[in-house]
Fold these 3 entries.
Entry 1:
Amino acid sequence: MFDTAAAKPLIEVKGLKMYFPITAGVFRAHVGDVKAVDDVSFTIYEGETLGLVGESGCGKSTCGRAILRLYEPTAGSVVIDGKDVLGADPGDLRRMRPKMQMVFQDPQASLNPRMTVAAIIGEPLDEHTKLSKSEKLARIYELMDQVGLNRDFANRYPHEFSGGQRQRIGIARALALNPKFIVCDEPIAALDVSIQAQVVNLLEELQDRLGLTYLFISHDLSMVRHIADRVAVMYLGQIIELSPRDAIYAEPLHPYTQALLSAVPEPDPEAEKTRRRIILTGDVPSPANPPKGCNFCTRCPKVFARCRVEEPKLTEVFPGRFVSCHLYDQTAGATAAPGATPST
């Protein structure tokens, strides 16, 4: 089990917001915002894998891209290895890029179809190093060996590879500059089930060997349980629960997390027979017009009056366990036990 007390923070995200403006009319007047990421804060420790989960459209990928400043965030701060990413000027940001990299969701779309594998993997070396041609080729071969690609394929093009092989090319490119931190944006979502385990095992092996730190974004809760040390659950642009992996899967605190995990099939047929699904009613509200109070109040089976008027804050309710829910608000009395239903 990963010990956060013994590790030092590598990534510190505070109050991160990513709003996309809504314009209307002939003069494109600003009439509102899509709150894709709304006041998100968390810490990732050196050598840790933080899983970021939630349903499609909740803001997971946008959060990952905003942390690396592939999008310009609206507000907040991101510190990576002691350096402020959001406050850096273009020159400083370029010098920081080698430490932070990304593996994209769709390996077909993220690789240039007109470049060979050697050129794709070598492009970061062209941009950020002054290696000679022979040194660069040696490094490309070394990276191909690390991710399990045959060196003989160096002059082939992306369309000549399977989905799993293309994702390995993307991983090799991300590793080229010896980064400390990698955002894995649903790296297995576009792959065959038979290939997914190979890619996840590769990521784990590289982490052990190279001391990498991951933000692993996924909607596959079973895979996150396998790879993550801690899990953050996102709903409508906000993190609503953050806990160690074993604790969150054994006893989820937030009603949304409980519903999410109740949908995960059990491999044991006997356990599957007794699994109780929590079916949420209604649709996810629009991030352009979130509900007043708690974002989840329109669908929560345990909602009460306070939820509709006051927004809960992400608070540590048990050691290492954070939840954004009035059920666990200590200011209103004793902390509720997991799964407790309040009086209305």
Note: The first strand starts at residue 9 and ends at 24.
Entry 2:
Amino acid sequence: MYAKKTALTVLSAVLPVLLVPALFAPPAHAAPTPTPQADGKGQPPKAAAPPASMSSVGGAALGQPGTQVNLLPGAPALPANLTGRSWIVADAETGEVLAAHNAHWRLPPASTMKMLFADTVLPGLPKDQVHKVSEQELAGIGSGSSLVGLKEDAEYTVHDLWLGVFLRSGNDAVHVLSAMNGGVEKTVKDMQAHAEELQALDTHVVSPDGYDAPGQVSSAYDLTLIARSGLQKEDFREYCGTASAKFPGRQEPGKPRETFEIQNTNRLMTGAGGLPPYKGIAGVKNGNTTMAGSTFTGAAQQGKKKLLVTVMNPDTGGANSVYEETADLLDWGFAAIGKVKPVGELVPPKSADTSSLGSPAQSHENNPLAAGAPGAGMGTALGITGGVLAVVAGGAYVINRRLPRGRGRRSSGPA
């Protein structure tokens, strides 16, 4: 295992996040939104409007187009000049959605899809396992992909490979880990099944690395749900919260193996591109492709407040816009907690439900309303549940889960 260096702000701000079961009715889902086609300049069209009604997972308001927020007296106004086609601000512990804009609009996710890849595959591969990379494992990587620089016939630990995924968004590392998981096709199926389990039902997986592909979509809501699940895993928190690390390089006979430094491409963590590091940032993942534009899911903690923000495809252009809008929404969220009425919630996994306490959401493939039947996109607003306490002591995470009073005990689902 190679030494790593974590951002100073992360040392006191790593985000242990819990999933809290909630009582809810089976939501309806809007028909899938086609993957946008690029315009003549190779950029995704900005004029396309969101569907008139979308999935109501998490609450009916989240299925409506436009900005959803309920400001109480004394609440700060939302940031001006937000241009993301879709965004969401959620309390990471309670799951309350504080505000959202086209939260369920199904859009290309770019490398934020790697959060689902990691949350799906990471638990099954021991981090100290050593693997020799083959030529076949590096085949089929999309042109122009971001790479960490894996070499054929070189050996890497699983820990090395995950650092390559999170810090450099390395599609080469994704393909090797997929091969270790049984191949790209199996990994895509595993990811889709896990998305369904998490009730990330806007998400359709085509490639494990998030590379542009016809039909590959997710949403700000789903990406936030996926990040919340991933952040429950210690290794996931480590990798997404690492600012820079030493990565294995060439191995010459009779000499120590060379290393080189890789830096996280999350500019709110490293301060690259002229941006100041965001106070309390703890991850999670950024992405950028021709079809998706810029995407980012960020987690941050200030005091006892923990937030998750996802922004998809700001209209302003520029490499920093997605980070700037995320930072503005984080600032707003930290000021607004307790001063807004939630517009929805981040739901628990299907396996967290019991028949006596609400039915699980249905797959969009099996939902009869998904094809645009009358009532598609309409649903019942969900109650918000709390009662979560996360204790950080001595560098170890002690998680105390408390179910909502009066609800009884039910399975919490996979960690």
Note: Confidence is low (pLDDT under 50) at residues 1-43, 354-415.
Entry 3:
Amino acid sequence: MRDGPQSESEREVLGEKEKADCVMATDPDADRFGTAFPGKDGKFVLVSGNQMGALLCEYVLLSRKELGKLPSDPACIRSIVTSPFTDYICKKYGVKQHECLTGFKWIAAVEDEFEKTKTGTYVFGLEESYGYKIEKEVMDKDGVSAAAMCAEMTLYWASKGKSILEHLDDMYKEYGFFEDRAISQYFPGSAGKEVMAGIMAKLRKDGLKTLGGKKVMEIKDIQESVSYNPENPSSKTPIKLPKSNVLQFILEGGTVVSARPSGTEPKIKFYINARTEVGGNKSDECLAATKKDSAAVCDAITADIKKILENA
């Protein structure tokens, strides 16, 4: 006998029937956490890991500030392939945003460093793959505490007359619209590793001046622990991160494109974290136009990445 609806469609139908403010779920070991919220038509909309990370981050900082519980040296942590959305939120609240490699062991390591060096007080950690760390007790992503915080956050914004999706749009108007895409290409067989190594080597050697028609302002080479402007590659700045085979291209306007071969599968992954400023009077119409502009930019970046993969 089943305890409740099992499929995504069943959960959404039950959510619509009960007029739920949100639908929440975790994976079997309850470390990853996913949500869906009703749109204006009553149909549920799945929120991405990056979107929920930004929502939770802002709510944690906002609620702590309102309660007078935000520490004097607050710090948040995100993985390098997670959307920079939270960077803008942290800047507003005077919180230092730290980056780390992919995986919550790295988030926990940065938090541990805070404790040892007294250089910050951990407030929130996240990565794009639906992982969030709300408190300090669990040194890993925790879907249970994330679900509790999400319920509290949903109630908070409902008390202000806002749904979560409406508030997310308000955040876009304030911080910029963020769109995230992931592109993966498999290279199986004995030659697969060599092909992927060749792609990364070519990107390191030649760099990229533009992506999707946007100028590349900075390249971060995590393997070489340096960052530089592609127009002046000889002038390099050190990066304080453990070495990892990752390249990041920061475009004008704040969009970040990351390239990373998978450590467990024969594939290379590109992450697009696009940011587009909402112009005009930041009305709903301006936001809708911005979303269209963002989609066009992401399409152009995707096309350039596919060319890189096709020519490998």
Note: The two ends are 51 Å apart (CA to CA).
